[in-house]
Amino acid sequence: MSGNGRTERSEAPEEEPPARVNDFAFKVATANGTGSASANGLILKAIYRMGIPVSGKNVFPSNIQGLPTWYEIRVNKNGHVARTPRFDLIVAMNPSTYAQDISEVVSGGWILYDDSWPLAKSLIRQDVTYIGAPLARMCVEKFAGARERILMKNIAYAGALAALIGMDVDIMQQLLEETFARKKALLGSNHTAFTVGYDYVRENFGLLPVRLEAMEPDGEYVMMDGNTAAALGCIYAGATVAAWYPITPATSLMDNFRELCKRFRTEPDGSRRYSILQAEDELAAAGIVVGAGWMGARAFTPTSGPGLDLVSEFVGFAYYAEIPCVFFDIQRAGPSTGMPTRTQQGDLLSVAYASHGDTKHIALFPGSPEECFYLSVQAFDLAERFQTPVFVVSDLDIAMNDWRTPRLHWDESYRWDRGKVFGEEELAQLKTFSRYLDVDGDGVAARTVPGVGAEGAYFTRGSGHDRHGRYTETEEGYQEVIDRLLVKLETARRVLPAPVIEQHEGAVAGLVCLGSSDAACSEAIAALAERGHQVNKMRVRAFPFSNDVGAFLRRHAIVFVVDQNRDGQLRTLLLSEVHTDRTKVHSIRHYSGTPLSADHVLEDVLPVLEPHDARRRPPHRSTEPPLEALRIMSR
Amino acid sequence: MSGNGRTERSEAPEEEPPARVNDFAFKVATANGTGSASANGLILKAIYRMGIPVSGKNVFPSNIQGLPTWYEIRVNKNGHVARTPRFDLIVAMNPSTYAQDISEVVSGGWILYDDSWPLAKSLIRQDVTYIGAPLARMCVEKFAGARERILMKNIAYAGALAALIGMDVDIMQQLLEETFARKKALLGSNHTAFTVGYDYVRENFGLLPVRLEAMEPDGEYVMMDGNTAAALGCIYAGATVAAWYPITPATSLMDNFRELCKRFRTEPDGSRRYSILQAEDELAAAGIVVGAGWMGARAFTPTSGPGLDLVSEFVGFAYYAEIPCVFFDIQRAGPSTGMPTRTQQGDLLSVAYASHGDTKHIALFPGSPEECFYLSVQAFDLAERFQTPVFVVSDLDIAMNDWRTPRLHWDESYRWDRGKVFGEEELAQLKTFSRYLDVDGDGVAARTVPGVGAEGAYFTRGSGHDRHGRYTETEEGYQEVIDRLLVKLETARRVLPAPVIEQHEGAVAGLVCLGSSDAACSEAIAALAERGHQVNKMRVRAFPFSNDVGAFLRRHAIVFVVDQNRDGQLRTLLLSEVHTDRTKVHSIRHYSGTPLSADHVLEDVLPVLEPHDARRRPPHRSTEPPLEALRIMSR
Amino acid sequence: MSSITKPLIVTRKLERNALGLTRLDYEGEMSTLCAGCGHDAITAGIVQAFFDLALPPHRAVKLSGIGCSSKTTAYLVSQGHGLNAVHGRMPAVASGANAANRSLTYVGISGDGDSLSIGLGQLCHAIRRNVNMLYVLENNGVYGLTKGQFSASTDVGSKSKRGASNQEGPIDPVLLALSLGATFVARGFSGDKEQLVPLLMAGLQHQGFAFVDVLSPCVTFNDHEGSTKSYTFIRKSRQEAAGFVPYQAEIATQYGAGSVQPITMHDGTVLYLRKIDEDYDPTDRAGAFSYVSERQAKGEIVTGLLHIKQDGGDMHDRERTVATPLRDLSFDELCPGTAGLDRLMDEYL
Amino acid sequence: MSSITKPLIVTRKLERNALGLTRLDYEGEMSTLCAGCGHDAITAGIVQAFFDLALPPHRAVKLSGIGCSSKTTAYLVSQGHGLNAVHGRMPAVASGANAANRSLTYVGISGDGDSLSIGLGQLCHAIRRNVNMLYVLENNGVYGLTKGQFSASTDVGSKSKRGASNQEGPIDPVLLALSLGATFVARGFSGDKEQLVPLLMAGLQHQGFAFVDVLSPCVTFNDHEGSTKSYTFIRKSRQEAAGFVPYQAEIATQYGAGSVQPITMHDGTVLYLRKIDEDYDPTDRAGAFSYVSERQAKGEIVTGLLHIKQDGGDMHDRERTVATPLRDLSFDELCPGTAGLDRLMDEYL
Ligand SMILES: Cc1ncc(C[n+]2csc(CCOP(=O)(O)OP(=O)(O)O)c2C)c(N)n1
Ligand SMILES: Cc1ncc(C[n+]2csc(CCOP(=O)(O)OP(=O)(O)O)c2C)c(N)n1
Ligand code: SF4
Ligand code: SF4
Ligand SMILES: [Mg+2]
Ligand SMILES: [Mg+2]
Predict the structure, then answer these.
(1) Hey, which of A149, A548, B527, C295 would disulfide with C300, CB 3.0 to 4.6 Å?
(2) What average pLDDT is seen over chain B?
(3) Does the beta-carbon distance from B64 to C145 stay under 8 Å?
(4) Mean pLDDT, to the nearest integer, of D80-92?
(5) CATH number for the D23-321 domain, one of 3.40.50.970, 3.60.140.10, 3.40.367.20, 3.90.180.10?
């Protein structure tokens, strides 16, 4: 294979496939620590600014420098933002993963590589097109110094890519100007690098059939990741105390919170209306939010699986002593340390029943960055209203990837719900204050916060206590309190965010999912509909489950439960908490660490639905395209 | 009420009830730290040596000195050893709890109290008999010094009690001699104290209708608590490394293990064939047993709820890295610190799914001290065979109370099952050693232990790894290993201890229980049979559940699941893991902190069974005694 | 057993402090500890310190972990809010509570098991954070509540009631705190209220983490002969390095001019440091370390104010938190509202 | 990404040690750390120490937690068994492994996050237990693997890449270890193999917990100007107190007679202690504390062997464990059999 930059196809050229506009996916393969992240971000943003729905997924190693990393970009005019594993184009910039990367492009697809060095024979596939551009060589010519050459090669491949898929050059230029507004010197070299790649490809290859065309920008959308949105939620909810111990993929939530605090919560004299404590570990972080919640501040800690184990003792304490606090669990692939930079929904059971003894916790499951914002705000209200730990359960895919998500709006009439808190006034009207006495039957007893007058003082403990908060080992005193906790949870269950249900005419099958599975499930359902299979969808948004959840399960003859974990944990929770016939429940599980795609869902749904639906209507199976073509069909 | 020691009954004397031999219960109320524990132990032992089935339950505060404590003794010729809440007799030695104690004796029962001081009028019940003996006064006369007087009063009430219920005085004398074999001085005063109480009652009152009569001693039984038996199990299993952090009610397991080690594992020169490490906390204790298990020793740590939370991160590590280790969870009343000296079965869910991510653990549920021994031994075999953490889940009731339990036997042909471990020889025959490769389809891969030749060296990690133990972030490499873990668990499921099922002719209802609930459930089932309700029983002994468990559930039209927790955790586990119709499952839950009694079970079973069984046969309900009389009927 | 309410027996006309309160106003529930337990004497000392400083009881926050020692927060200042955290994790809860409200008076009470074993990491990090609180370690060299196991401050060679013999070297909390740069390090003895109360008072006034290790014999499990945590041993081996003069009035009368040195606390009050050993300089961390460890090698226990560093700045000073307690900020002070969000959204286009 | 196998390139005739092994026999997988990371130099130092001592590689046990530093156990002695525990909890795993088998050579590698934050309690208690192992703390004053957050050894005023500024005082692991009575305390620098290798060798030979704090710059997140953990700063501020002479042969040639003092290790080997400062006495714990902290106050970092106590006895010596590794005891040596059980049962009648 020569390095002269001509398009080469090993077989005699077939007919050019028709152009596929604003509907394709590609992947950029690089090594981490080389600066490719910012180039990839520019590419994503440029496409986004062209008004085209796009999403980006970062596949990075648990390491700082030198290991392979990928950035997957999907362009989809219909707004499907889930991952797709079929790449029309690979930007192969990391020789150490050439073999894998080249194998992953779809048949008929394209490979953009750096032909400063020749490609090994073994890497040649017959069914794809190789596009070689001597990026490194050109960068060596244009730039001085190893570091700059490495950095600029990233911008050069962005330029090459831009030429291949028809990116708007003015937009890119604008983005470079914004990015380097304060570092003018860098702007020039970035511009040069971009042009080098762009010109080379334009001159030697031209546009691919998979290409971009500007659409009407939809101002109601933004590009955002879930941790940014969740951090914003914490700001808007009025959280003032934040504690944490660094852990991927929860860290960026706190990074964002800190930045937002600096911007929105700093007095002119530099003093701060917030306190962020980096704790010595997750046990301490949990203790800090428990202490702050007890003191009457809104407090939260973000963590991930290993941290979840460590906070569980404090979660049980807060549950029993009835202290409001918010935990974010940004799930990653387990068990144990697992794959810290891969996604999974493996903590559902651990969250639901966290801590020994009889406990059950409120958990919210945002399905998008947008919901990370709204449900975060709600989490603080629920925590204070029900005086209990509330979990916001997200995952690496939502939290750290770039999602096209509806613009966030704020309702000025919103006021925080601090729950039942007795101040001096209320206390003055009482004969005696009994901390754990439920007077109105909703299971929630009014609390006081430290510093209030002596009448409101009581002793908070995780040991056996009665309605007055007094230490007890008696059956009645103890049982009254833990029975009330159940009443409280039952009240909560009725006001938690309802599941989002999408009904289709004549559907007998229902699909249940939560969190980041939503996008892929929606896409799969659309694809199924095109194939004549109607499936209803329910996205669960809270635990314990509302009555609607059970009703949905019971009203469908076939139920699919989609889990991004090995053990079908959502399914387990549903079967143990909700009445339904388990024989009709089919478990769909994806847990390799990659985000869920519609294909994964279809693969498991079709073998069940096809025979079933075939019985209900004239057979037309043979006319259906094979599974592989589904992605195209679903567009 | 005068203090002259006559039997007084406020109403005109009714007819004396007929004698009730070897079938009654009484309770001794004292304050802790006063030495009553040894007096109570002597009483229990004396009854036991008379050949009469007896059990003792200690109800003690989470405190060291001065708070109320009770010892409940049940004498039952039929061998029912569960707690009964109906006391025929109260030995009321603690004025601070007179009111409660007196209220707890059954109508027609007796109260033995110290009438050195008069009883308040408000404490007089019309339907019970008061027996006053001036124990303190007599001890002041006989003994010098506050400490001795306090101690001897305990032996004096034992003497008084002996006279009331007809304890064998020779046996008691013998016991005193054994106890004070090495402290002859004390023997004299103890003898005096016993005689003082005994003589006073004999002279002034005489035998009660509830009384003891010697039976043929059954040499096949011993008196033992579960933690002693479990510690013995650890010795017999060949455990050499034990780590712990003190916590009630797990502490005595380690105390016993240490004593047994001193006895059985000490070389003549004083060196030790064991290592007991008191760790700085439960996290460290877990790390120690993981390290020792990895190194090839049998290792265990006993803990309770709060510790369970803290070990969970290491449990997930050991699950994923496949390291054998044994955890004892001696459950106490939760949540959080809860009631540390009360019993509950509240950790079932926490144990089953301990740690974040996809995990599921082998748990064994001993139903008696006897089984604490056998299942402990088995736990080590299972841990090494399946290279995974194994939990032995006991509770305070089994662990710390005195049970009449079958004598333990040892099968000399037993050899420990170390599982698949490759030594130099096996390694020599291999081309390459792949730590996580399953060659025979049972899901278990052979391991090596450190120190073996270089061919067997590998790297153990809780991060993503492939079949070779190499770090991986690839879908295939990662998924192969975690899928195999499921196969392994499935293999284990088939060999775990089967449930113990008791079938009755014509029973349509089945009752499921585990652990310490067994005794009360057996008793309840016997009582139900007497009332014409046949109920089958299944005692679950292991998680994950064997197929028999599901089959039992499905084959009964009515299923009762007995849980000693608020949330019905066994029921939750059954419903999520096993296929059955949940509408037929009735949850029976007792969670006040006291051990389960047959009454608790009957109270919940009868309202379901009575209408049901009534439909199946001619009504004879009106002839049945009311619920209150059931305890007598069931004898 | 429910908690016990103390019988209120007023025997004589009660002394009143600057707030017009009596000592009774600073008491708590009746103790359920063993008769003679050192911890009860410390409780009395804290009550006294609160009374003498005339602190408003309802502004007191009492925090502890789990253990006999940790129970004592219930036995003092019942008008204040109290919290028994999980075992060993009180420092984190205190940090969080303090972060949320810097305006209250924080007292943490812990045991040697709670602080030096399971809670060691948390204690060390609360010291680093310099959380503004009085931290009392009721050190009896044993786990009282779980019935006599060794703690991390048990002497080598000590035998437990169950016959085990401790072989691990004890952690000296004072040396530990010094090595971590603690800003207030003192040691007292539950049997010497004269010395203890002024130390506690100074600790309450210190702006930062005031660490007071109090030797507090466990009469049930560790008061035997040979225990360095027994009443007998401590009485015999105690040496005072530098302490405070409890009341200003005493200075003139009791002490010579040179041996007393005024120290101005953060709140402006002046405490009078009394040096026993002329060479002892409590502001010299390394010197304190040497002094304590050298005396220890001779079998002596040094008590008193061992180290103080006044200009550290507590957690809030360092992090520049606003003066208003965070938990008292209004929603409007915290939520950037529609305008803020809209502006922000434009940046994500 | 699977792990990377190092390309085996043999360039010259390799030196062999007493076991006939080459340095290659002590190497591990290829490092995936950043180019220039201090940790890689420490890896090389450990490889060298193993080679020089001619330790059988398959008898090596390598333990670590989580972090860039903790990854390095995979980059050395691949013929030994390795274990990456959960974050901060390696000391406990090491204690358990060592309890089960006292006959192997244990090396623990950790980072400042792993050891001084989440794992601080475990580190302190492993020191108390005097587990027989070499414990290397690869101290870069930052959390490398999670991308640059502050650790407990970060300097006050240090700024993170995300713009936060650290206000908590750093923990000096050496002072901490001294305060806990550690029996071997040393400090090295990843950039000075000459000094480091002998310290590691001595640590490997020490019968007990040999604690070596190694300053190890993180080139990606904490090598900037103003960081006291940067190559530049350490090179500038380093002072050696007392170290070992690497090879006996050098003694005669390089050093004067008086400045070298023989120390006989537990296994009989003699190491030669080289004192730089005449007054420095590494057997004096309090002296070491003063020396290190006084120099620190002057902006100097003291390296070398800072404290040694040879007669401590390790965990097994103190607990009197049998000589045979526990995990090698046969079932018959452990199970008391039928007779034992029957006799025991009679006692429970
Ligand atoms: C996680 C956890 N582990 C163990 C316990 C049991 N526990 C309660 S108090 C205590 C030790 C208390 O010792 P110390 O702090 O010295 O207090 P003391 O009773 O001696 O005053 C222990 C181990 C617990 N409550 N929680
Ligand atoms: C329980 C838990 N919390 C958090 C993490 C995330 N984490 C991994 S490494 C690390 C810090 C490592 O810092 P250090 O020990 O100093 O190692 P370095 O990378 O600097 O060498 C953290 C916080 C984790 N793995 N486990
Ligand atoms: S056991 Fe010891 S520490 Fe606990 S109350 Fe009694 S004397 Fe005090
Ligand atoms: S991030 Fe820092 S510590 Fe980690 S490998 Fe890179 S230089 Fe080393
Ligand atoms: Mg203690
Ligand atoms: Mg570090």
Answers:
(1) C295
(2) 93
(3) yes
(4) 98
(5) 3.40.50.970
